[in-house]
């Protein structure tokens, strides 16, 4: 049984930690809840004890003979602080240990994940930003907060990510370890499939679910990157900490990606943009002719977003493209890699009930330098990690070669 410490601070989002606790316990993890005194004003001790099935210690002096301020941190395999207030981030960054939770943070040798929740002004304050950077520089993982409704009528960045997203993030850290090899990097990931309208109710699209793109976003986040996720018609839970941009058509995807790529170190084009669109969009629903004959639809070619990005690449910027093919996959992929000036291209053979919408994937990674690696069937999360292993290798080699980043 994996031992998890769930630290809970006194933000208004403390009640959401109950759902996070339930997700951990129902998946077989042992959870020790360590709330601050402020958190207990939001959610009482009996609630945490009932949901975790364990007693809840709140003070350093409780059960002092067992030295809880040292024992809890040492025994943990993962510490998650959710919600993490500006106060706890400041204390953790400066090594202050004035209660059981802050003592636990100082003694923990396992990965530590902070899920902040606070008002936008507090999150953007220079003191908080400096504390976050300090924690990240020491290997702690600080998830970017979500954008949405805050306390009262306020809306902005500072909302606690959805508990299910925090849970998925935490599982990645447990299974893959805490990596920070993308810290300080901006990674842009596209996901999903674009839709080109035929009329007000119909569209031309594809079967992409966005699962591989979302897995790539989670992988980059867990390795410390700032992630912009551009999602085309995806109905998956938002990855905790990603800046999410929703688009519908290929032109919308192009505009958002070109804008985000201007400051990106890595662009991963995992979305499946429609290659064609109708030349005209009917203003009303297209009706069948009396004899049932369909009206002809004239298609025009959409812009090649990856090729545009490849032509505009800055020195040191990496472009990762995808090639989803139904036949002759490697041959087509190598041609695409040259045309798009991609550094890596990820190749998979697709079709009905193959890859699209599935949780597993079988891919081949090709490099512009002649590198090739065929991966056995893996979960899409594992595929994402393997892809970023190659990305990090290339970023590191560019730094070693003195290339400007």
Automatic annotation (TrEMBL):
Protein name as it appears in the record: Coenzyme A biosynthesis bifunctional protein CoaBC
Gene3D superfamilies reported in the protein's UniProt record: CoaB-like (3.40.50.10300), Flavin prenyltransferase-like (3.40.50.1950)
Required co-factors: Mg(2+); FMN
Catalyses which reaction(s): (R)-4'-phosphopantothenate + L-cysteine + CTP = N-[(R)-4-phosphopantothenoyl]-L-cysteine + CMP + diphosphate + H(+); N-[(R)-4-phosphopantothenoyl]-L-cysteine + H(+) = (R)-4'-phosphopantetheine + CO2
Pathway: Cofactor biosynthesis; coenzyme A biosynthesis; CoA from (R)-pantothenate: step 2/5; Cofactor biosynthesis; coenzyme A biosynthesis; CoA from (R)-pantothenate: step 3/5
CC per GO annotation: phosphopantothenoylcysteine decarboxylase complex
Function according to Swiss-Prot or TrEMBL: Catalyzes two steps in the biosynthesis of coenzyme A. In the first step cysteine is conjugated to 4'-phosphopantothenate to form 4-phosphopantothenoylcysteine, in the latter compound is decarboxylated to form 4'-phosphopantotheine. Catalyzes two sequential steps in the biosynthesis of coenzyme A. In the first step cysteine is conjugated to 4'-phosphopantothenate to form 4-phosphopantothenoylcysteine. In the second step the latter compound is decarboxylated to form 4'-phosphopantotheine.
HAMAP family: CoaBC
Record gene name: coaBC
Family assignment from sequence similarity: In the C-terminal section; belongs to the PPC synthetase family.
Residues covered by the Flavoprotein domain: 3-171
Originating organism: Actinoplanes regularis
Native organism taxonomy: Bacteria, Bacillati, Actinomycetota, Actinomycetes, Micromonosporales
Biological process terms in GO annotation: coenzyme A biosynthetic process; pantothenate catabolic process
Domain DNA/pantothenate metabolism flavoprotein C-terminal: 182-393
Keywords for this protein: Decarboxylase, Flavoprotein, FMN, Ligase, Lyase, Magnesium, Metal-binding, Multifunctional enzyme
Region (Phosphopantothenate--cysteine ligase): 187-405
Region of interest (Phosphopantothenoylcysteine decarboxylase), ranges: 1-186
EC identifiers of the protein: 4.1.1.36, 6.3.2.5
Cofactor note: Binds 1 FMN per subunit.
NCBIfam families on file: coaBC_dfp (TIGR00521)
